[in-house]
Amino acid sequence: MEKFNENGYVILPGFLPSSLVRRLTPEVDHWVDTGLRERSIDACSSPEHAPPSVVELQMEAHGELAAHTPLLELLREDRLLGPAFVFHHLHSDRRPPGGSGKSWHHDYEQRPQRDREHPMIHALHYIGGLRPEMGSLAVLPGSHRQVAEKDAWSHLGTAEQPGEALIDELPPGSTVLLHSALFHTRRAARGPVKDGRARYMIDASYCRTGTLWPPVKPYWRMVLSVGRERGLGQGRWPELFADRHFSEYVRTARGVPE
């Protein structure tokens, strides 16, 4: 963790236990195949759409992942979030082999973007690992110190940038911790798809307390209440699912999960 503040990211190969990975995979399939993920996106994009009947934290293994003790112990380090932090959101997805990329962007929630005083961290969990034929993650070390809008680099597409770091080989259950303001891109798959393996990725986000954070889902209170009702804070993390650290939801033009 020594270089996290300098680089804005750290790679944790095989961080999640295989027993949890095995339980997460069918839950991601259920989330995608039943249309729950699509309904969660629709609810963010238009007030006409109701939230999904089930939220991610209601799925047994997803809830455990959000409050995975080894992860929370890392986040509490002073070089990361420190002792007081709150869960922000969780997005779960399965992308087909050879899936498309996503332009350079960052995911730091602040409107307007004005400082980086309070850190926010995304934990990108690659459930099935990462290989070139699944697509890759590229990050620009140190870019989290720039104050810029999320899409300030979108005109670059997914093009290679000087000084970037490419991450495309990870074993199952690996996690990449990003400072949420770090610019990164998802590249499309390189080369032929060898075995048709899908790309499973669950991202969970956490914020240092001390400011009001903008939520990204209109039903954010429901998500936090599930965390409290399930006792996911385990009595050790009293602020993890507390409403009081958030401002009211404001629908944006983009309005879709990262």
For the record, what is the CATH homologous superfamily label?
q2cbj1_9rhob like domain
In N-to-C order, the SSE pattern is HEHHHHEEEEEEEEH
| Adjacency order of strands in the biggest sheet | 1-7-4-9-2
Judging from the principal axes of the Cα atoms, what is the shape?
globular
List keywords for this structure.
single chain, 5-stranded antiparallel beta sheet, 258 residues, 4-stranded antiparallel beta sheet, alpha+beta, disordered C terminus, Jelly Rolls, 9 strands, globular, 21% strand
Summarize the structure.
With 258 residues, the protein is of the alpha+beta class.
Plain-language structure description:
It is a single chain. With 258 residues, the chain is of the alpha+beta class. The chain has a single domain, classed as Jelly Rolls. Strands 1-7-4-9-2 form a five-stranded antiparallel beta sheet. The chain has a four-stranded antiparallel beta sheet with strand order 3-8-5-6, with no helix packed on it. The radius of gyration is 17 Å and the shape is globular.
